[in-house]
Amino acid sequence: MILAVTLSVFAHADRLDDIQQRGYLLVGTTGDYKPFSYYDGKNYSGYDIDVAKYMAKQLNVDIRFVKTTWKGLIPDLQQGKFDIAMGGITRRIDRQLAAEQTQGYMTFGKLFLVQRGQAHLYNTLAKVNNPKVRVGVNIGGTNEKFADQYLNKATLVKFEDNLAVPKAVLAGKVDLMVTETPEALYYQTTNPKFGVVRKNNPFTKSQFTYLIGKGEQRLLNTVNFLMDDMRLQGIDQQMMQNNHLAIPKYILAETTS
């Protein structure tokens, strides 16, 4: 009888139960990807940070942020260092095989961030894919994978900290940064010294997601429910505006349709 009760308890225990019992949600984030996740040494800010806070409030729990890296995103999640990973994470098949991915919440594409007035110099892969062009990418993410696949003849300059790459563009240490639509437009919107290559016709098309531990179906369902409700109430759009998330109309239309 005791064994049966014990097995029943274990059968119903899951990550969502753990979160509610402990009273706080653990969110893993890199803190280096504006405007989704930015850590200034004291506090986190950004669109996905606001979403995380909203979700914790809906679950009636507190929130705690855990610093991670792009390279350590999946290993840290698998080791249970946090309940969910957030912060401009691209949906990918290798991540799907290693974890659970939520529904996509924003469509975007790979493109280049450059100095203002230089977009015409780098508007094709052929122009960029040569040794004379210095391409800046952050290590461990999809930007690096894109550069390794399509720009392997260019001079790749790799950075541990994603925040360092836009600074390198302005300083002339690299000619361009491989990035995504929202990040590139954020930098262009907040600093007129930047230019964006192919913002209306990016090289690829993908969606952002949140990552949850493999097999945690109840937590996955709950997060997807909250994402649907945010979209229904228009809360996601308000958060985008609050975080200077400048998105082309074609992307917003596709994302919210």
UniProtKB/TrEMBL annotation:
SMART domains annotated for this entry? PBPb
Q: List keywords of the entry alphabetically.
A: Signal
Q: Can you list the GO cellular component terms from the UniProt entry?
A: cell envelope
Principal location = other
What the entry lists under Pfam families is as follows: SBP_bac_3
PROSITE patterns xrefs: SBP_BACTERIAL_3
- Domain Solute-binding protein family 3/N-terminal stretches: 24-243
Any idea where this protein resides?
Cell envelope
Q: Is Signal a UniProt keyword of this protein?
A: yes
User: Record's InterPro entries?
Assistant: SBP_3_CS, Solute-binding_3/MltF_N
Q: Which family does it belong to?
A: Belongs to the bacterial solute-binding protein 3 family.
Listed name of the protein: Transporter substrate-binding domain-containing protein
